[in-house]
Specification:
Pfam families: FAD_binding_2. The protein is of the alpha/beta class. 27% of the residues lie in helices and 21% in strands.
């Protein structure tokens, strides 16, 4: 081991890149190592919509973050506000009765300053007009507390962060998989690596940051921690997040932390590839998602509805409902819509590779629902639903409109319209997994905490590897923000440790 880096970051997704940028900001010599080749690098971040959830008090807070603050739509846009209290309440809604964790409070408290920090590093954002607004009275009305995403979504976010890192003098090596951590005198001081061809190398470092994701791409670990159904999940992102970072940390006595049977999921096209596909344009890749269920109904293989499709804005339900779909018989469901909402369906439903069936009558549509043997059960479900729709309340997709059903054992709480106007469409979906919630205990300096309660010297973690951030669900856009918040923290912590190590030498 001839050369010594101040900080080595394992992984090249957004969290890892934020750690690398933060460490460079403090003057460290930083190397990123990435298992994938350059074209497939970027971790799960590249497969996301690039949206980030954070605290803001109004339009003025958002202008400094924008790629194009002179967009002519801005004066006619009502972004509203998203307070710390609201962010906390949204997280609590998925905590299963748990209070806000230390990690969640840090996520909330550091969210806006981290967005400003990214913007200061020329990582800018644009309003999500296509997915987070409805037009009303000549205004663009944002809903759900989610307003900004990176230009060109997750791919654009990773590319912008990589440009910032390289502009600061950072280096990256592709086809360089971490195999194990090097430890001397109780301190992590490097990484054993291997290329795809089997060539090995040791890289020496004063500090190492684990930013290499969870275990969502490892079917055996999904089955072990989350349940047997999850061996069948489609992996929305990279095939490389197989849990190696966790395994390396556990070998050193790291403390497991968080909800290991929890994960971020979403309804996905049943016939999508087994893994995300970066070989198609990002505009198409995102279209395997199918998250307009709130405008219709979902039925399982028995012909039954199984969730309250209108429980809340889809930002707050898609992670839960992706799990619910996967846990249905046969691991699939059908999303059913009529022509009244066809113009409101997101572009993913018009994607050239979107799978669906269509018919002029509801009866004819039902006959086309493969995987459902009892077609009469579907007819009854839809007839009961239609009869229960509250006709006295107006449909309004810009708010939780209270247009509900009455008398059903499983209600639809909002946006309940009769499904009665042809032509009708139905889309087959399954559950797709994006990232896992179980991770490591991390200190307020980003250090990985040992089972004895002390930081493991020289070892830091960020991104999916930080446990305690999410539990039984996920408000959309929080994952990338969490990656940035804890990535920045880990980079600062690792840089400080590296500086102290040099001083003590």
């Amino acid at each position: 081991m001839s050369e010594v880096w101040d900080v080595v970051v394992i992984g090249s997704g957004s969290a890892a890149l934020c750690a690398a940028i933060a460490a460079k900001e403090k003057g460290s010599r930083v190397l990123i190592i990435e298992k994938a080749t350059e074209d497939l690098a970027g971790g799960n971040s590249k497969y996301t919509a690039g949206a980030m959830r954070f605290v803001y008090n109004g339009n003025d807070d958002l202008i400094p973050l924008l790629q194009n603050p002179d967009d002519p739509r801005i004066p006619n846009t009502e972004f509203g506000q998203y307070t710390a209290e609201k962010f906390g309440a949204d997280l609590l809604g998925f905590n299963g009765g748990r209070p806000l964790s230390v990690e969640q409070r840090d996520l909330i408290g550091k969210s806006y300053e981290t967005m400003r920090w990214l913007a200061d590093n020329n990582v800018k954002f644009e309003p999500i007009y296509s997915r987070q607004t409805f037009e009303k009275d000549g205004k663009y009305i944002f809903w759900g507390g989610l307003t900004l995403a990176a230009e060109h979504e997750g791919v654009g976010l990773v590319e912008a962060e990589m440009r910032a890192f390289k502009a600061m003098g950072g280096e990256i090596r592709y086809d360089c998989a971490a195999v194990d951590l090097i430890v001397k005198d109780g301190r992590v001081c490097g990484v054993n690596t291997r290329s795809a061809s089997g060539e090995t190398a040791d890289i020496e470092a004063r500090a190492v940051v684990l930013g290499c994701g969870g275990f969502e791409s490892n079917a055996k670990l999904r089955e072990k921690y989350i349940g047997a159904d999850w061996a069948k999940a489609k992996v929305r992102g990279t095939p490389h997040n197989e849990g190696i970072g966790l395994e390396m940390a556990f070998k050193l006595g790291a403390q497991a932390y968080g909800l290991y049977d929890g994960c971020h999921a979403t309804p996905m096209d049943l016939h999508m590839p087994e893994y995300g596909n970066l070989n198609i344009p990002h505009e198409q890749r995102k279209n395997y998602r199918k998250i307009c269920y709130f405008l219709g109904v979902m039925v399982n293989a028995k012909g039954d509805r199984f969730v309250d499709e209108g429980k809340d804005f889809r930002n707050y339900t898609y992670a839960q409902f992706g799990r619910a779909v996967l846990e249905q018989p046969g691991h699939f469901a059908w999303q059913i819509f009529d022509s009244k909402v066809d113009h409101l369906l997101y572009e993913e439903y018009r994607f050239s590779d979107a799978h669906y069936v269509e018919a002029d009558t509801l009866d004819a549509l039902i006959e086309k629902l493969d995987g459902i043997d009892d077609k009469d059960a579907v007819r009854k479900t839809l007839a009961d639903y239609n009869a229960a729709v509250n006709a006295d309340v107006a449909f309004d997709p810009t708010i939780k409109d209270g247009k509900n059903t009455k008398g059903l054992s499983l209600p639809k709480s909002n946006w309940a319209q009769t499904i009665d106007t042809g032509p009708f469409k139905a889309y087959p979906v399954t559950g797709g997994i994006t990232f896992t919630y179980g991770g490591l205990k991390v200190s307020d300096q980003g250090g990985v905490v040992h089972e004895n309660g002390r930081d493991i010297p020289g070892l830091y973690a960020c991104g999916e590897m930080v446990g305690g951030v999410f539990y039984e669900g996920y408000p959309g856009g929080s994952g990338l923000t969490s990656g940035a918040v804890f990535g920045r923290r880990a980079g600062y912590g690792a840089a400080q440790f590296a500086t102290q190590t040099v001083a003590a030498a």
